[in-house]
Amino acid sequence: MSVPAVAVLTRYLGRYGILVAYGLLVIAVATQSDRFLTKRNILNLLDQAAPLGLIAVGVTLCIIAGIFDLSTGSIFAVAAVAAAKMASVDPWLGVAVGVAVGASLGAFNALVMSTTGINSFIGTLSTSIMFRGIALLTTSGLIVSVADREYKTLGTETLLDAKLTVWVFVAVAVILGLTLARTTLGRALYAIGGNSEAARLVGIRVGSVQTFAYVMSGTCAALAGVLTSSRTGSAQADIGIGLELSAITAVVVGGTSIFGGEGAVWRTVVGVMLLQTIGNAFNLLGVDPTYKQVVQGVLILAAVSIDHLVRRRTR
Amino acid sequence: MDSADVSFKLGQIHGLVGQNGAGKTTLARMLCGALSPESGHIEVEGVPASFASPRDALDAGVTMVAQELSLVPGLTVAENLLLGQLPSHLGLCNSSEMMHRARQLIDDSGFNLDPAALVSTLSQSDRQKTEILRAVARNARLVIFDEPRSSLSVHEAAHVYGVMRALAASGVAVVLVSHFLSEVLEVCDVVTVMRDGRAVMNAPTADLTPRHLVEHMVGSTHDGLQGRRPNPPPQHGAPRLETRGLTGLGFEEISLTVGVGEIVAIVGLVGSGRTEFISAVYGAHKPTSGTILIDGAPKRIRSPRAAKRAGLAYISESRQTDGVFPLLGADTNITVAHMETISRCGVLARRLQRDRSADAARRVDVRAGSLSQPISSLSGGNQQKALLARWLVQPPQLWLIDEPTRGVDVVATAQIHGVIASLAEAGMSVLMVTSDLDEALAIAHRIYVFRNGRVEREFDADATDESALLAAAFAADTSEPRQLA
Fold this sequence. Notes:
The structure holds 2 protein chains of 2 kinds.
Chain A: H1 3-15, H2 17-32, H3 39-64, H4 72-87, H5 91-116, H6 120-139, E1 144-145, H7 149-154, E2 158-159, E3 162-163, H8 164-182, H9 184-194, H10 196-201, H11 206-232, E4 234-235, H12 243-253, H13 265-285, H14 292-314
Antiparallel strand pairs in A: 1-4, 2-3
Chain B: E1 13-18, H1 24-31, E2 42-44, E3 47-49, H2 54-59, E4 62-65, H3 77-81, E5 88-89, E6 92-93, H4 95-109, H5 124-137, E7 142-146, H6 154-169, E8 173-177, H7 181-187, E9 190-195, E10 198-204, H8 210-217, E11 241-248, E12 251-258, E13 263-268, H9 274-281, E14 289-294, E15 297-299, H10 304-309, E16 312-315, H11 319-322, H12 330-335, E17 343-344, E18 347-348, H13 350-364, H14 380-392, E19 398-402, H15 410-425, E20 429-433, H16 437-443, E21 446-451, E22 454-460, H17 466-474
Parallel strand pairs in B: 1-8, 1-9, 4-7, 7-8, 13-20, 13-21, 16-19, 19-20
Antiparallel strand pairs in B: 2-3, 5-6, 9-10, 11-12, 11-14, 14-15, 17-18, 21-22
């Protein structure tokens, strides 16, 4: 191979290192299990990935803009509870209220950070505790079960064999992916995450753009919560604990910089799929569940290291 | 820094003066091991020494009271004073012994400091005193004070000078780097003037005046900066920019004008309020009083966004911290301030971005393999040119440029000067801050000298020279010897 061709190849590998890692994982699992690459398993995998995927895609916007949103797990629960309660009045009212609650809590996050000026990490950590408390208050710690049949079919309805949840995930990922990559708003998110003072000095509305990121993150978490409650026909205050960290893990595993200013939605989608595939492989291969977490940690580390190594080579 | 032969004697106070960037701080940092010299050597009491780190210098008895203080804010004054030599027994800190020693140090100096106070609760001047006492506590034989005066009042400065005298009297060599020429002459026994990284004068202070020092600071080497400035256009009507009594953090009562098609420079020492003033005009932080008029009409500029809308552009002095977006491409960096010109209804058009950025980059000759590569992979000069290109995408009426050519090579400097001249030719106005007096004289029509946050004097660039500007910046003509304790 000629030298430029090698250079082009390594640059490609550098950019798509995480895809290489994911491809290797898929091949490895496929050679060990015949059931892995079946239509049923793949649909199942996507279905399981959708709620986390929705949250992670919203969180991607925040991380790129230099914001940590640790309240998504709590917003997930509040929205699920609100939607399940309202669904007894009308199923679509339930969906609308759930999503609106998520968007409002996101806006509340933005308001808190902009008025107090505190760091988003500690700020959203605090609001997440508040939100979880609101979910507990409204349910009195009990399970809210939904009787409405139409609401329960929302999450299980299928279109072209895939559940509606999956389609919502795909649609949100495409919309937010295009927003990030192709719009001035997306460009402003990258600019703020890369150098917020420089962004302010070129006239970017830093506060408004960050508010957008918080609201999208809250909305995505709420969508995930609503769809989950629809599928199980119930909601309670303690669902989704730790989801916020899984979402950030997926974002970072995909190769979006934890320091902001760099990354993409497709990376997050790959990150989510990588995490889910690892879990799926455990079930298919019948690995002793006691080893699961150790091996999961090792595999995440391996995937991120491959990505990091290839990228450093090409820098 | 080029080459400097200086010797500091025990028991003497030695002044080190020069323009911004003359190499004083560089020399000081080499002496205390923070930088390594490329060639030449340092001798301590006749023995060649090489300091690989500040630790080595400390061991050899050299210590510095730096401009940026290096205290641990979460510890007490006493702990900071004795850090690295805390009295301890079997690894346990002996706090009564520590407090005793700290109190003794403080009492000997005559400072008013509480050894038990947390450094984070101290005022800037008390931190400075702590820093000074720490140097004393280390039993240093050579103590370098880098601009100790900058955060102290006259009265507090007198205390510091008292400590310096006491140190010298106890047989320590003291070096004072300062912009306060009359005070240097008052306090020091010997003074060295640095210029362009060289020690150009070395003499006892006995029969020197501030004016003598300034004369030596002025370089005779004009490195071929040819005035490319266009003739100033006749001014009629309102100036493009006028400030009336603008006051804010770091500057007071600034009244100046910039005419249509005019290039105006602000010069002054570091800390004279130049940067604070120009960034306040752009709305980066709010002035407390005064008015800004654009084309004769008062404008309230509350944010950079409002400034941009009022027809202002701003390039800050710190390219890395608040200029470029290092991770983004050069093309994105160039178009980021005018995304409306490369998008429709908020959707970016790649072809427009490519064309607009290439067009602007060509006008200032940004050299890059591809404009889509991250801007951080470009040289400093090309990054600076890209920042100019950023505002050329849709040129404003008034450019505010802080240090247009800092850290930029000679060729790029000439190109940037060419661009600034062409802006003025096209009827735009430029207000720039520069530390390079040659630059101000070469391309500006008029020059304001700032000192201590105020306009000291205004000059016509054709009717002045470097030494007049420097004299104004140092106030060497007017200052009388201060009364010092």
